[in-house]
Amino acid sequence: MTPAARIAAAMELLDEIQASPKPADQISSLYFKSRRYIGSKDRRAVAETVWRVLRTKARIDWWLEALDFPADARARVLVDMIFQGITPEPDLFQGAHSARPPSQEERRLMEALRGKSPFHHAMPAWVKGEFPEWLTPRLTALWGERLAQEVAAMRDEAPLDLRVNTLKATRDEAHIALKKERIPSTPTDISPIGLRLANRVALVQVQAWRDGLIEVQDEGSQLVALLTDAQPGMAVADYCAGAGGKTLALAAAMQNKGRLVACDVAEWRVDKAQARLRRAGVHNVTRRVIDGESDKWIKRSAGSFDRVLVDAPCTGTGTWRRNPDAKWQLTEETVLELVSRQQAILTSAARLVKPGGRMIYATCSILPEENEEQVEKFLAAHPDFRVLPVPGLWGDLVGTACPVPGPYLRLSPYGHGTDGFFAAVLEKPSV
Ligand SMILES: C[S@@+](CC[C@H](N)C(=O)[O-])C[C@H]1O[C@@H](n2cnc3c(N)ncnc32)[C@H](O)[C@@H]1O
């Protein structure tokens, strides 16, 4: 592809992303799948532009509004070019598959921005921090003086974290296996089973991944799995298992011994777990599609699990580094709807816990109403459960220095270099 064709493709893909309610990564992978002629280097270059525009959209739109220019995909890419120091020479808009050359108006826009910093002192915090304006009161209450640093860390691209599958390798062995494939990695600071890659790689081409030695999993998500304390021989339910990200980690902690049930309401997600479980050499997992809170199996299985992990559906506000488009689609109504769904799920999952067992409630959200407030509401309605403060469990379950004061696990990109995660460990004491 010529640079001109890459610019045109970035504009086109961004247009498609903005016109669809689906996540940007889904639209992007469909876009490239239906254009197999686009080689991997070009794909990377186009995606880089598109993701950078999504990450800096509030800033770009602020400038467009300030200069009285309509904000669309094309204008956003043009502004991004200027901020990247690319001069829109005529040959960038010529030749096969190129975008049409800038109009006079567009040239004026680009001239007005040339040499300017993308940040302006008059930009409000939500524009500088790239988060939805309506979340300002909540995030200010949550982070106070740290707001600017916290949101800045959520703007950056996330690293690629791997969890070592301890059924097949130690962390050192996985590190060496990757090194042999010329893939440098470093041990994660907080999780004892994580490796962080310096550069992104296509894992399908990596032998260590094909052999099941490693899986993609953010360090924060690894820590949630470790806090679940799934042990060999236990009965463990992964209540919102999805495609099995945490199920795999639980099975490894159980050394393949005991009973691990991976539930979810979405059959297509549970189906996706199958190949991952096989690759990882996991064979103590039963996958179960449940029919929501009224599912009969849940009723029948009441009181029979030592550990129940509830990795609840949530706003995903802790994963904005990976899904920068998601924040612009989030609405207040969605938050309210999720909060009520989470409470129903917690109440339902709690039935599965044995006396003496534990329920671990987790989200990849930073919002207190999905986290601490949910736990408090649950405890008020279920006096038979109590909180086990995370710092008291950490030494035995994780073994590194505990990164939080407790009682809950609350992680953020700025504070811990992980995605934003929350977890609470709730015990149902034996009577
Ligand atoms: C955060 S995701 C789970 C991610 C998964 N645990 C992992 O680590 O890869 C939340 C999951 O909850 C599921 N879910 C939504 N409503 C549910 C319900 N009422 N009962 C059980 N699972 C539900 C969704 O289908 C989704 O897979």
UniProtKB/TrEMBL annotation:
The scientific name of the source species is: Magnetospirillum gryphiswaldense (strain DSM 6361 / JCM 21280 / NBRC 15271 / MSR-1)
Taxonomy, superkingdom: Bacteria
The reply on keyword Zinc is no
Annotated active site: 364
Q: What is the lineage of its organism?
A: Bacteria, Pseudomonadati, Pseudomonadota, Alphaproteobacteria, Rhodospirillales
Q: Tell me a GO biological process for this protein.
A: RNA methylation
Which family does the similarity line name?
Belongs to the class I-like SAM-binding methyltransferase superfamily. RsmB/NOP family.
What is the name of the protein in this document?
Answer: Ribosomal RNA small subunit methyltransferase B
Pfam families xref list: Methyltr_RsmB-F, RsmF-B_ferredox
User: What residues does S-adenosyl-L-methionine bind to?
Assistant: 264, 291, 311
Please list the residue ranges annotated as the SAM-dependent MTase RsmB/NOP-type domain: 150-429
By its UniProt entry, which SUPFAM superfamilies does this protein fall under? S-adenosyl-L-methionine-dependent methyltransferases
Give one GO molecular function term. RNA methyltransferase activity
Q: What is its EC number?
A: 2.1.1.-
Q: Which UniProt keywords apply?
A: Methyltransferase, RNA-binding, S-adenosyl-L-methionine, Transferase
- The yes or no answer to whether the keyword Magnesium is present is no
